[in-house]
Amino acid sequence: xxxxxxxxxIASPDASGVPVINCRVCQSLINLDGxxxxxxxKCTVCNEATPIKNxxxxxxxxxxxxxxxxxxxxxxxxxxxxxxxxxxIITLGPVMLIPEEQPAQPALPVQADGTRVVCxxxxxxxxxxxxxxxxxxxxxxxxxxxxxxxxLPRRRCCAYITIGMICIFIGVGxxxxxxxxxxxxxxxxxxxxxxxxxxxxxxxxxxxWGAIKVSYPEHSFA
Length: 222
Description:
Blueprint: E1 20-22, E2 29-31, E3 40-42, E4 49-51, E5 59-63, E6 69-73, E7 78-80, E8 89-91, E9 110-111, E10 115-118, E11 125-128, E12 135-138, E13 145-148, H1 151-177, H2 179-184, H3 188-211, E14 214-217
Parallel strand pairs: 13-14
Antiparallel strand pairs: 1-2, 3-4, 5-6, 7-8, 8-9, 10-11, 10-14, 12-13
Helix pairs in contact: 1-3
């Protein structure tokens, strides 16, 4: 995406003497009458913000690639865009000293390493910042959990099936081998129940991992 144009000095009055400034996104004129006490003004055409003063002390302006104007600490190195349809992570460069009469220059947004993932639930694409596959991801669009890659659910499904069958076999062995003993000591039934219950829980977890949705990356990780 193309960066917005650089900020210029504060507006000059138009022919009628009313102070105006160009929107830094769509270049439309913004009337500053009665707004000169503000740090930023909102364009009535594109609804994006444009700074008209230096940021408050200890703050700086950052323009996201979606044109959202952010205000953050001047020591910040990473910030996230709050817009639901963007959610971009912006890595900020070193702080630049800017002349006092000029509004702050936007830091260059650098997209963090990661990959774009297609959600297995809703089919929308989102940025996944983990540097490995076989992890669980929450889609910012539908808010549902899916596995990034199919290796993790396949591996865990097999592990739970194996443990579950072992527990059931142990329960069957206890049932067959301790029937006479259980008639005299009823507490033996508890061991049977525990073995069968653990086996059932593991098989239910295996079904969960076997049925979990899988999200696939569009490209390999950066």
